[in-house]
Every structure is written in C-alpha cells, then in structure tokens.
From TrEMBL:
Entry GO MF terms: actin filament binding
Coiled-coil ranges (or none): none
Residue segments, region Disordered: 72-101
Pfam families according to UniProt: WD40_4
Protein name: Coronin 6
InterPro entries the UniProt entry points to: Coronin
Length: 101
C-alpha cells in the first residue's frame, strides 16, 4: 500500500486485508511501529513518488522528460477511528456500489 493510504500519525507501515469468508467481511489489519510521539516519523518512511505530477500535459506532449516528484511526507492520512487503527470490518455484499478499501 502506498504511503498516502497509511495512517502515518499512528506509524502504520503496512496494512493487510483479512478475508472472513463465512461472514462476508474484509478486516483491515495494521502493522504499526510503536512510537511515543504521534508526529510524522521520517525514519520509518522512505522517499515515495508524490501526488503532484512532474509534468503538465502540454510539457509531456512536447516531449519534455523529467523525473518523478518524490516526497518524504504523506499526502494525507486517512481519517476516522476504523481507518486510523485498522479496526472494524467492511461488509462485502451489502453495499455493491461502495468502493472497497
């Protein structure tokens, strides 16, 4: 999962999704590095491609080459108690129009 999908304020470094087939649920499981501070921890997150494009469409069409825009910080952190700590379950079959996380 890219860094912008993790809760960096909780030092989440990876997120697994456990399928509970008997109940039709997806349960997110977070891997969190224990830290005392809830501020951004630069030492556990590597440089990541940013969310801003390196080129405009006109630059790209004219043949300009440029490297990726890299960032250390996450673009945004997920909100809500379920996303923040990786707790709770998401139903698979009850809301077909809702995108799955």
């Amino acid at each position: 999962m890219p860094k912008h999908g993790l809760d960096v304020s909780a030092c989440e470094v990876f997120r697994f999704y456990k399928l509970v087939t008997l109940k039709g649920l997806i349960e997110p499981i977070s891997m969190i590095v224990p830290r005392r501070s809830e501020t951004y921890q630069e030492d556990i997150y590597p440089m990541t491609p940013g969310t801003e494009p390196a080129l405009t469409p006109d630059e790209w069409l004219s043949g300009v080459n440029r490297g990726k825009t890299m960032t250390v910080r996450a673009a945004s952190s997920p909100s809500g108690p379920d996303r923040a700590r990786g707790q709770g379950c998401t139903s698979l079959g009850k809301h077909p129009g809702v995108p799955r996380h």
